[in-house]
Amino acid sequence: MFCFYLWLDFNIEFLFMKTRILVAFLALSSLISGLSCSNKPKTSRKPVAQIEIVNAGKKLVYGSDIVIKITVKLKDGNLENSELYIDNKLVASSNQLEFTHTLQKYDEVGTHTVKVISKKTDGTEGNNFKDFEIVSDIIPEKYSIEVVKAHPHNTTFFTEGLEIKNGFLYESTGENGKSALYKLNLTTGKVLQSYKLENKYFGEGITILNDKIYQLTYKTQKGFIYDLKNMAVIDSFKFESTEGWGMTNDGKNLIMSDGTNTLTYLDPQSLKPVRKLQVSDNKGIVNSINELEYSDGYIYANVWTQNYLIKIDTSSGKVVQQIDLSKVFDLLPGPKDKIDVLNGIAIDPVTKKMYVTGKYYSSLFEIKPIKTE
User: Cα–Cα distance between 120 and 79 in angstroms, integer?
Assistant: First the structure.
């Protein structure tokens, strides 16, 4: 019995000793962990810049002063500076947590992006974005048309682009498997030359510059260049826009639309963008700009699915006229369900006569705009 108590006493003592060792170990681990955490640098929080367009409560009109207020909030650290960009162009910077910048008499219509990059003294950066929209300061003049004459037009042509050169009509047609480029007799509609695109391409707008025909395609981001004399393909090019719609030129640059409110000017040599022009009327941006025709400082454009043309001032992007083409639709013979939307504008550079048509239309109409207001 004595041995049993001796054995029990020994084991209890051993158990207490193990417990003391475990407690000491846990205490030491906790101390080391605490020291480790206290020496670990805290993650620096990004600065947050709040952007307020102070006068955004009212419509922002071409020529308005745009007041932008920036407020930077910090969780820790100190601000080094904030940079203010408009459409990726640096316009102001400040080392204050709050500052205001005014864009005086802002003269670019369309949607514009404010970007603020704030940087702390430890190098941590934060950024924020906000858009604002500028509308035109003029109401477009309203025009109707007089239909001067109707010429035959091929009812199988899904018209995407028109151009007149040396008295001939050039037409681009769309739809995969049916897309082509045609040279036509203007008054009879007779095909004089043609080039059919591969089935994978959907033909779009065309323009003629320096004895070359430039043609866009719809969704392949590819354009073709033809020799004007024999309509042979001499080159191709890639463009940045997701889609190709209409095309024209101002004698210096190619100009293309992509279904948005933005017209892109391309250098005819490099085929790279050199200018972006947004289009707006007094109500807001004008989307779905389609076929284009340049004449005397203005661009005439179809608006997809609409029965009117718009006339755009190329110096500002403002719509200065809206030309109602309803009379054209009314003059088309036969069932209207066999035709598609208006599309196609051509102005003879010599006579200044204007022509319009549409997809599957039986006529090419010579028209004369007439002011109604």
Answer: 4
DSSP conformation letters of 266-319: E-TTT--EEEEEE-B-SSSB---EEEEEEETTEEEEEETT-SEEEEEETTT-BE
289 and 202 assigned to the same domain = yes
Place of tokens 């035709």: 339
Are 332 and 310 contacting, i.e. CB atoms less than 8 angstroms apart?
Answer: no
CATH of the domain at 169: 2.130.10.10
8 Å CB contact between 254 and 224: no
Strands laid side by side in the 191-196 sheet:
159-165, 168-173, 180-185, 191-196
pTM of the model: 0.84
Containing structural domain, residue 181: 141-371
Find tokens 């008499």 and name the residue.
105
Burial of 174 (0-12, 13-18, 19+ CB in 10 A): buried
Rounded Cα gap, residues 359 and 30, in angstroms: 80
pLDDT averaged over 10-residue windows placed end to end, the chain, 373 residues? 45 52 54 47 83 82 93 91 94 94 93 95 92 95 95 94 96 96 96 96 97 97 96 95 96 97 97 96 96 96 94 97 91 69 94 95 94 83
